[in-house]
Amino acid sequence: MEENRYKVIGQRIKDIREGAGMSQKDLATALGYESPTAVSLIEQGERKISVEILEKVAHILEVNLRDLLGDKEQRPDLNFALRASKDLSPEAKTQILNFIEFVKAKDGK
């Protein structure tokens, strides 16, 4: 079970790293490793990764630590919730949606 968890984390690191257009060598250098082999082993789940290194990877790849752990955070569909609410005026719904978009833009999400 533990080994499987490292494979999941490694695959998430690989997917996010590739999505960011970063090579294994780039990530290795940013982490202070002399060779990309360390990153390759981590991504294959063959090398255990410490919490400290995992936090560094999250920072370098500019993602939440939960993204690397493969956790899927359940977020409510706010558009659905607003449509379902009969107590809000159309103007209030628009203001709420505008605020949500503002927050997303500010957080870069």
Oligomer: single chain
CATH architecture of the largest domain: Orthogonal Bundle
The percentage helix is 55-70%
Structural class: mainly alpha
The top-level CATH class of the largest domain is Mainly Alpha
In terms of per-residue confidence, which ranges show pLDDT below 50 for 5 or more consecutive residues?
none
- Give the CATH superfamily of the largest domain: lambda repressor-like DNA-binding domains
| Tally of alpha and pi helices | 7
Radius of gyration over alpha carbons? Answer: 19 Å
What spatial form do the alpha-carbon principal axes imply?
elongated
CATH fold-level assignment of the largest domain: 434 Repressor (Amino-terminal Domain)
**Could you describe the largest sheet, including whether it forms a barrel?**
none
**Count of domain modules:** 2
**Number of E strands:** 0
Sheet-strand content, in percent, reads under 5%
Measure the end-to-end span.
32 Å
Output the helix-strand order. Answer: HHHHHHH
Architecture overview:
The chain starts with a helix and ends with a helix. It has helices at 2-19, 24-31, 37-43, 51-61, 65-69, 78-84, 90-107. The chain has seven helices and no strands. With 109 residues, the chain is mainly α. The mean pLDDT is 82. The chain is elongated and about 60 Å long. It has two domains: 2-69, 434 Repressor (Amino-terminal Domain), CATH 1.10.260.40; 78-107, no CATH class.
